[in-house]
Structure formats: C-alpha cells, structure tokens
Design brief:
Layout: H1 20-30, H2 33-38, E1 43-44, E2 55-56, H3 77-83, H4 86-106, E3 119-120, H5 144-159, E4 169-175, E5 188-189, H6 193-209, E6 215-218, E7 222-223, E8 226-227, H7 233-242, E9 250-252, H8 257-260, H9 271-281, H10 293-305, H11 311-327, H12 349-361, E10 364-368, E11 381-385, H13 407-415, E12 421-425, E13 429-435, E14 447-451, E15 456-461, E16 467-470, E17 476-480, E18 492-496, E19 504-509, E20 515-518, E21 525-529, E22 538-544, H14 546-555, E23 559-565, H15 585-597, E24 601-606, H16 614-619, E25 622-626, H17 633-641, H18 670-673, H19 676-679, E26 697-704, E27 708-710, E28 714-723, E29 729-739, E30 750-759, E31 764-772, E32 778-780, E33 785-787, E34 791-800, E35 803-813, E36 820-821, E37 827-828, E38 834-836, E39 838-842, E40 849-853, E41 860-868, E42 874-880, E43 894-899, E44 902-908, E45 919-924, E46 932-940, E47 944-951
Parallel strand pairs: 3-4, 4-6, 5-7, 6-9, 11-12, 11-23, 23-24, 24-25, 27-35, 36-41
Antiparallel strand pairs: 1-2, 7-8, 10-25, 13-14, 13-22, 14-15, 15-18, 16-17, 18-19, 19-22, 20-21, 26-28, 28-31, 29-30, 29-34, 32-33, 34-35, 37-47, 38-41, 39-40, 41-46, 42-45, 42-47, 43-44, 43-46
Length: about 950
C-alpha cells in the first residue's frame, strides 16, 4: 500500500510509505489514555475500533521455541556457546525464529488472548561467573567478548536480514549481574566500577550497539543496593548504546518483579509508587501477575492520578512498543516477508540436520590418551552405562522434544551394520520400600532409584517408567514419565531412620520437607508428617543391584562409555543454585567401579554446568563434555565417539578442581575474589577455551603489523594454522592480550578475538585479525572512562587460556597517566582502586552509589592509588548514618584518612537518621606532604560514604 493508494478514510498509520516515526505518531494520537495504559501490561488487549489485534510480549526461545509444544530442540545455550561458531549459532537463530513465525500463525497460544508472541525473551547474556549458578545452562560463557559475539550471532539469526521488518524481536536477559538464584529477588550484586564496565556491561554493550537486539529484560536482583527495575543504568547505558542504531530498545520486566519492589524488597511503600518508579526508570512493559492485567494497570492509573507519573511517561513506553510492532510487520501483513512461513518448517529435516550439527560441534573432548575415536574392529562390544546412557531430558527453557535418540541407541544403530554390539545399563538400583506398619510395598510396586546429588533421588516405577510424585493433597502417585514443571514434586530423600537398622529409611519429600506417613485406619500413604516421630519407617529391599550389573557389562565389553551428569530440573535450575561442583557420590562410585574392570573407559559428562572430575582426569584415558544437546544428542555423540565427526567444542567456562576453594556465591567482584580465567590464580582442571581435536593442528608465523601502536590505534595480527595430521578437524584460534606492568590489577589474560576454522588433512590457512585500542583498554576509576595505558603488552595466540602457543610483544605509545586529582574535586567513594570488606549500596533510590562496611565490627579500607594531595589541608566526606536499632547502642562511626602509613585526620560520622539522609562531615588535616600518595580511607562502624573532597583552605571560622 502506498500513499497514493490510501483513501482519505484510511488512517495514516496504515500507510506503509510513511516513515516508521510518522506512523507511530499517528497511531499514538488515536489511542485513548485508557488504551495506552492497557498497553503497559504483558497481555495487550485488542483495540477493535482501530482494527488493532491483541499483542503479547515474550516467547521463550533460548535453544528452540519453548512452551508451545513440539519444536526443534537444539543444545542448551551453554552448549551453543561451546561451539565458538558464530555462523552456526546464527543458523540456529534463523531456524528458531522461522519455527516461531510458524507457531505464531498456525498454533494457538496456550494462555491469554492473541497469537503466540514474536518478541523473543532470548538470549541470556549473563556471564557464567560462578559454575554453581542454577541457571548456568542459559548463558553462553564466562567471558564478555565471547558471550557478546555468540549473542550477536543468535540475535541476528532471530531478527532476519530484511532492512525494514523483523522475523522475531530478541530481548537480552537479564540486566544486570544476575548470577545467583539463592534469594535472587532480595540479594544485591556489589559491582565496583571496573567490574561493572569491564565485565558485566561488556557482555550487553556490543550486542545492543550493533543493533542486533531489540530489547532487554531487567533482572530480579539488586545492583549496588538498588533493584534492577529502577536502575539508572537502563537509560544511562542500555539506551545510550542503542540510540545510534536508530531504534529504541523495548525494555520489559521479569515476571512479578514490579510487585517485588514492594514485597519482598520493601524498596517502595506501595505498588503505585514502585510501578511509577519502574516506568520512569525505563521499564516499558510490565510482566506481572500473569493474565491479571487489571491489577497492574490499576496501579499505574493510581500512579498517574497521584502525579507520580504523567502521560508523557506512558506515551514514551507505548511508543517503543508500537515501533516494535510495526517492525514485526503487524500492520503490513501484505508486505511482511516472513508472514508466509508455514508449519512445515517446525522440526523439518533441515532443522534436524542443523540440530545434529550443533550437538556435534558443541561436544568438548577434555582428555584423550588414544582411546578415541573408537575403532569398531577393536571395540566390537561397547557397554554404555549410567543415568544418561540412553536418556535425554528437557530443561525449563526447552521445547517439547519431537523425538529423542539417546547415546546407546545411536551407537547401536551405527555399529549394528558393522557387526558391533551395544549393551545399555543405567546402573540404578531397583528397590522396594516396604512399610513397617502394613508390610506392603510403597505403591505396590518396585522403583528404580537414581540419586542426583545431595541425597536427592527420583523413584521411577518399574514397568511404567513413571516417576513417583507427591500431589497437592500429599498422596503419592506415579504418573509422569518426564520431569518438567515449575514445582518439581518428584524428588525425595531416603533418610536413615534414627535408632533403627541400616536398611530402614524414612521417605522425605524435597519440596515440602514433609515425610511419608501411613494412615492406620486404611493403610493409605500420604506425605503429611512434619517430623520424624510420625514418619513411616520403610524397609529398603534391594531387588536388583545396578552397580553389579554395570560392573558385569563393563567386564564383558571391549570398551565402556559412562554417561553421567545432572538432570536439568533437579539440583541446579532456575530458583536453585548448586551447593558444590562434584559429581553425585553414587555416580562417582559407579564410574570407579566400571573403570576398575574395564580400563578402556571413557567418561561422558552430560550436564548443564562444569563438574570437578579430578579422579576421571587422572585415571581414565578419555573424558568428554556435552550440554543437554537436544533431540540429536545421541547421534551427535555417537559420531564423535566413532570418529565420524570431530569434537568441535571448546569450553566456554573454567572447570575448577574439586579441592579449589571457590569464592562466595554472592561475591561479584571477580577482580578481588579471583573469578574466571581472567583472575583465578590456582591452576584449573580444564581451562577456559580448552578442547581437543582428532586433527593435529599446529601454529606458525605469528605476525604483528607493527610492534608499536598509539593509544587510539589499530593492530593487524596474523597466524597460520596447519593440519599436520591425517584427519580433518576444527580448531578455535584464540587471541589474548595482557599488559606486562600494569598500574592496576589487570587480568592474567583477556580474550581479544577468536576464530573457528575447519581444516582438511594437510591444509594450511592464514588467519587475519584486527585489534583496536578497545581490546587493550581498562576502566580508569580516576577519570571515569576507558583508558589504554602506554607500556608493554603481550599479544598471545592460544588453544585455551591455559595453552598459549605463540606470543609477540607490543608497545603502546602515548602520554603516561597522571596522578589522580582529589584536591578541589569531588571523588566518588566507589571509585577505589582496591578495597577490603567494602560493599556498594545505593546513595538514593533514584541514582548514585555509596560504600558501606560489609561487617561494621571490622574496619573497611578503600585504596585510591596515586592521589595528588598537594595543597590539601582539609578533608570533607558525604556521609549518612542510620539510627541504631533499639538495644544496640549508638557506638561510633568514623572515616580515617591515611597517606601511606601516615594518618592525616579522622572524621566522626554523626547520626543522620536515615540511609538517604546525607550530610557533610569534615576534619582538618595534619602532616600532609605534597605530591601523589596511595590514599587509604578506613571506615569503622555503621555508615555510608558517597564521596569525599580535599580542600586547599581550612573551614571558615
């Protein structure tokens, strides 16, 4: 439709010849205030009088379309990250978005009005800082550059390449520093400026600046004491990056997070105030109370009536939504190039082939002493053993598997034509639980029991394959063949009954914490007992020894493949972090039993996160890792094991050793705590980027275009890779940089670029990289900008962060950094160079950071290096101090100033009455020597410090 063909009665927003902004302006003017307010909730109602359909935000599509029934399931996001293959991830994004387009038009939505949404709540770009994070499977990597590159590729696949229309609209999750599930709605991620800019923001920035993402989702947690849903970073950072692309970001809340601002966070007094603050901070759409839009809109209407927001705030958010809907082709069905995608694309042969390729490319060969690839002539009989021997699983963000082929089944299919044999043994014990009270077995059945760590077990009914489940009324039934629900009611603990025989247990339901009890009236069993006294005692009868069966199978085989790992819905998932990184004890024991009788044993770890497999690395000839790889996991792994495919994956995160003492889960300061390959000092079990190939790839001729570079210059780097072996294979060439003599605590290494190449036998290929100054920059806390220091740097080519194969020196030229100016200038307390026991908090509810002691009973120190104290005679600090709780006593709070070891002065901090009630406290200084010094502030007691200043003249009399 063109302007010439539009009749006078046709509204301008229907005229595709007009600019996007003109059309949005016209439609916005036609909407009433009530209609605009209604657009602020996830479920946007239709506007029949204007012919506008209902709209909804958010369809999950992290590694395939989720929640809408059967669709192609690709490897988990961490598995896609392990491919290090941007072209492949782009292709996966294209396939996923094509299937969502088909489901948008051809499959009804499971809930709510309107069709399935085309706004995709993916990818997740939260960095995999801690391998115990319950949602580790959702991220791509622990490294910001790697994560941003993979995320950009996926987003571009999701959006399509049309200049005007989007195939789908990707939303980046979860902004910001969302890396723990424990108390996730009330915990605060303390981010000093260097960590904020060099690490957490660095994963989001390139994706948004490239225009690949159309939106972002705010995270549940707080950052520096302020909920992410009211963070000034939404406008100051996210939208500033997007502005040059010509399109605004459409920012959505996480489910229920706006309500969380009042309960449980208690950040605002009421919901109208909380919702208003979120809207003004940059939240455009409220995912809250599911389909109950009336309550959410009512809160926003109240905020409008109370003057907490105005119509401009509403219009700004609605405008961003309308811009997105126009770009998705909603108002131009005849011009939308993706409108004709039909249901035949869902799980089509091409997508199945892509799923298999992605699964194979994500397999990481961690160790190989020559066992792999398996030669059918030498391994005619293979035992596949373990809980994942022939089982595949869905995770919370995967679609429904259209089919599934496990490892044992795939190996059997591959080896049968060659006369090979595959035996499959899950290794689970088969037991009966016989009631002491009635003598009856639980459920009148036997169960295969599998432990998933921390004593958590599932009980799978023999004969039906259904899991025992605790229903809402406490009854126990075996009814589901798979576990996939927000509340997992199929997990239990078999706890030893106190003061009883060894094989007598009590059955405890994990989610409720209650015990199974027998009703003496009718003998029925319900999970109703709150304590051990009323809990039924069960005789645990071993009917079949799974470990013995596994031992026998391994002993009679030529090789054993032991497949261990996690269940994606148990012990490490959304809402639940892991307690450790070791394999479940029964799985470790099963592995050792098999290896004792069959030295030719390979361990396959199929998991959502790393495990400390120290024993396996020492004692087994081969170890591999794969994420839960989707419907084609079995064929892909079989191809790798048999050498039909090269193990193309490389680790996207560090695998730590079992005896490595990891930092606290809530310690987000990767610099101070030593997280990730950048700052961790102990040698890991397997380093970031590690992975072996069946090919023999060597590196030659590392060359730099110059050995000096200006602080704003560029550098060309080339290296030649050669496949010297007889097999084709892939290699991920990784380029790292590091300063040799940094004035700040620099990363041990930092990934600057990477490239995945496939090489045929004898093939030689030169790879060219271009590095910009950005790759050498750090966040200078003294100036509040990214800075490239002059000096000597290493440019390194590596197979992993632990395997550098070549290096060259580079000198960056330019003026040296000057001492930090602190006299006559306000310095933020959070802009320290180093600290002990400091926590960052909010200076006000709207903006600003402050510092407070982690433990008020111990001093907190803030170090500011090379601070020029010339002329300083007086120190002033912006401080706040709440009144102590009744009965605690006031105590004293103070800030001491030191230059090196000399104390220059001390401020006693007065009680201001509120954490946001700021005052200036000052003290005259003595013993100040001019020039730069390492300045230390020592905080004692309960106080908050926002900023400080040194004055060159004493206070007025």
């Amino acid at each position: 439709m063109t302007s010439a063909s539009v009749s006078a009665a046709t509204p301008l927003f229907r005229d595709s010849a007009l600019t996007l902004h003109e059309r949005v302006d016209d439609l916005l003017e036609r909407l009433t205030l009530d209609e605009r307010l209604a657009m602020l909730h996830q479920y946007v109602p239709a506007v029949p009088r204007l012919g506008i359909a209902a709209f909804r935000t958010g369809t999950e599509a992290l590694h395939g379309v989720a929640g809408l029934g059967k669709a192609t399931v690709f490897p988990q996001a961490v598995g896609l990250g392990a491919t290090w293959d941007e072209e492949l991830v782009h292709a996966v994004g294209e396939a996923v978005s094509a299937e969502l387009r088909a489901l948008h038009r051809h499959r009804p939505a499971p809930t709510g009005p309107g069709p399935n949404g085309l706004q995709v709540w993916s990818p997740v770009v939260n960095l995999l800082r801690d391998p115990r994070w319950g949602r580790n499977e959702e991220g791509y990597s622990e490294d910001p550059l790697h994560t941003s590159r993979v995320a950009t590729a996926y987003c571009r696949g999701l959006t399509g390449d049309h200049p005007a229309y989007l195939r789908t609209a990707p939303v980046l999750k979860h902004f910001l520093a969302n890396n723990n599930e424990t108390d996730r709605s009330i915990t605060s991620s303390s981010l000093r400026p260097r960590v904020l800019h060099e690490y957490d923001l660095a994963a989001f920035r390139p994706v948004i600046a490239s225009g690949a993402a159309t939106g972002a989702m705010a995270a549940y947690n707080l950052v520096n004491g302020r909920p992410c849903h009211v963070s000034p970073l939404l406008e100051r950072e996210l939208r500033a990056w997007a502005r040059p692309t010509g399109h605004e970001l459409f920012v959505v809340s996480d489910e229920g997070a706006p309500t969380n601002l009042v309960t449980p966070e208690h950040y605002f007094d009421d919901h109208a105030e909380g919702h208003a603050a979120a809207l003004k901070a940059g939240i455009d759409n409220f995912t809250d109370l599911r389909e109950d839009s009336a309550t959410v809109i009512g809160r926003l209407r109240e905020a409008l009536e109370r003057g907490l927001i105005d119509e401009q705030d509403v219009d700004r958010a609605v405008r961003r939504q309308l811009q997105l809907r126009f770009r998705l082709g909603e108002f131009d069905p005849d011009l939308d190039p993706y409108a004709g995608i039909g249901p035949e694309v869902v799980d089509c042969p091409e997508h199945r082939a892509l799923a298999r390729r992605a699964a194979a490319e994500s397999v990481v060969l961690l160790k190989n002493d020559g066992l792999l690839p398996l030669a059918p002539a030498r391994a005619a009989r293979i035992a596949v053993i373990g809980p994942h021997a022939d089982a595949l699983y869905e995770d919370w963000y995967s679609g429904t598997l259209p089919y599934q082929v496990g490892i044992a089944t795939a190996l059997r299919a591959a080896l049968a034509p060659l006369g090979g044999e595959v035996v499959c043994v899950p290794g689970a014990d088969r037991i009966a639980l016989r009631s002491r009270a009635t003598g009856d077995p639980l459920g009148k059945s036997a169960f295969d029991v599998q432990e998933w760590g921390d004593g958590v077990v599932t009980l799978c009914e023999v004969g039906t394959g259904r899991y025992l489940r605790c229903c809402d009324d406490g009854s126990l039934v075996a009814e589901r063949t798979s576990l996939k629900n927000w509340f997992v009611d199929e997990t239990f603990r078999l706890e030893p009954a106190p003061d009883d025989e060894d094989d007598v247990v009590v059955l405890r339901h994990v989610r409720t914490g209650r015990y199974a009890a027998v009703d003496p009236a009718d003998g029925s069993v319900h999970v109703t007992a709150d304590g051990l006294t009323a809990a039924e005692r069960w005789q645990r009868e071993l009917l079949h020894d799974g470990t013995a069966e596994a031992r026998a199978a391994a002993a009679s085989a030529d090789a054993a493949i032991v497949v261990l790992g996690n269940h994606p819905m148990i012990n490490g998932r959304e809402t639940e972090d892991r307690t450790g990184i070791t394999l479940p004890e029964p799985q470790e024991a099963l592995l050792r039993t098999v290896a004792a009788v069959r030295p030719e044993t390979a361990l396959v770890v199929m998991s959502s996160y790393p495990y400390a497999v120290d024993w396996a690395d020492t004692h087994l000839p081969a170890v591999l890792w794969t994420s839960h790889g989707g419907q084609e996991t079995g064929p892909a792994l079989a191809a790798v094991l048999l050498g039909e495919a090269d193990p193309g994956g490389r680790l996207p995160q560090t695998w730590y050793r079992g005896d490595d003492e990891l930092p606290d889960l809530l310690d987000y300061d990767i610099i101070k705590s030593g997280w990730t390959y950048q700052y961790h000092h102990a040698a890991p079990l397997y380093p970031f980027g590690h992975g072996l190939s069946y090919a023999d790839v060597t590196y030659r001729d590392l060359r730099l275009s110059a050995h000096t570079m200006a602080q704003d210059g560029t550098l060309d780097v080339s290296v030649t890779t050669v496949n010297s072996g007889s097999r084709p294979g892939s290699e991920v060439v990784q380029l790292y940089v590091r300063p040799r003599h940094a004035r700040y605590q620099a990363p041990r290494l930092r990934l600057a670029d990477f490239r995945k190449v496939r090489l045929e036998p004898g093939e030689r290929r030169r790879l060219d990289f271009r590095l910009t100054a950005e790759q050498f920059a750090h966040w200078d806390v003294g100036t509040g900008t990214f800075t490239v220091d002059p000096g000597d740097y290493d440019v390194l080519v590596a197979r992993s962060a632990g395997d550098v194969v070549a290096g060259a020196g580079l000198r960056v030229t330019g003026p040296p950094p000057v001492p930090r100016t602190v006299v006559g200038r306000r310095t933020r307390a959070c802009d320290f160079d180093d600290h002990t026991r400091a926590v960052l908090v909010d200076a006000t509810r709207a903006a600003g950071d402050a510092v407070t002691p982690f433990d008020p009973s111990r001093p907190t120190t803030l170090l500011f290096r090379s601070a020029d104290l010339t002329g300083a005679v007086r120190f002033a600090a912006e401080v706040a101090r709440e009144k102590e709780a009744e009965g605690e006593g006031e105590g004293e709070a103070s800030v001491e100033v030191r230059a090196g070891e000399r104390s220059l002065g001390r401020i006693v901090v007065p009680v201001t009455g509120d954490r946001y009630a700021w005052t200036e406290a000052a003290a005259e200084l003595s013993g100040v020597e001019p020039g730069p010094h390492d300045l230390t502030l020592i905080l004692r007691g309960r106080l908050r410090l926002a900023a400080f200043n040194f004055h060159s003249s004493p206070a007025d009399d």
